[in-house]
Design goal:
This protein is mainly α and 169 residues long. The protein has helices at residues 11-28, 33-47, 51-62, 70-83, 97-116, 121-138, 143-168.
């Protein structure tokens, strides 16, 4: 254990650490608050620890402390699982490029805000909303997949525009 745990019996400090970890996981995966809580819970179950220890592993991970720590390894596994949800593929949507770029910019900005203010419930709520909106916009089950799909859609649009320009020239 490399971080400084909250003093025993200090539930307020523990809640702040957990809220900070939830916001950080939301920014790292990216995901919503529900999935971030699941990531912490899975990490705690896997290591036989508690949610406070899982929260500490999140903070250790982003600060580059003790990468061989079993809690960090469990956290990485939980993050990887959160990025890929099982299920049939959703229909592929083709949103307007300007709308898609605006949603991407909003999500990226909120991810940065979540890393600077991870315990802020307002930032978490806005990040939740932005992630959900991007998922709906591109027809993805997870924000991670939505980011990948949005990148592919924009790349395809760019390639199509180049092909039209070449054909018209």
């Amino acid at each position: 254990m490399t971080g400084t745990p909250p003093p025993q019996g200090d539930p307020a400090a523990a809640r702040v650490d957990i809220a900070r970890a939830i916001g950080t996981v939301m920014a790292l995966v990216p995901c919503g608050t529900k999935t971030a809580r699941h990531v912490l819970a899975r990490t705690a179950r896997t290591t036989g620890g508690d949610t406070c220890r899982a929260a500490e592993a999140v903070l250790d991970l982003i600060h580059g402390r003790d990468p061989e720590d079993p809690a960090q390894q469990a956290l990485r596994t939980a993050i990887s699982a959160a990025r890929t949800l099982p299920g049939p593929p959703l229909p592929r949507l083709r949103p307007d490029g300007g709308v898609l770029r605006a949603h991407l910019a909003r999500l990226r900005t909120l991810r940065r805000h979540a890393l600077t203010a991870p315990a802020d419930p307002a930032v978490q709520a806005r990040l939740d909303d932005a992630a959900h909106s991007l998922c709906a916009l591109v027809g993805s089950r997870t924000p991670h997949a939505a980011l990948q799909n949005a990148g592919r859609i924009l790349a395809e649009r760019s390639e199509e525009a180049r092909a039209r320009d070449t054909a018209g020239a």
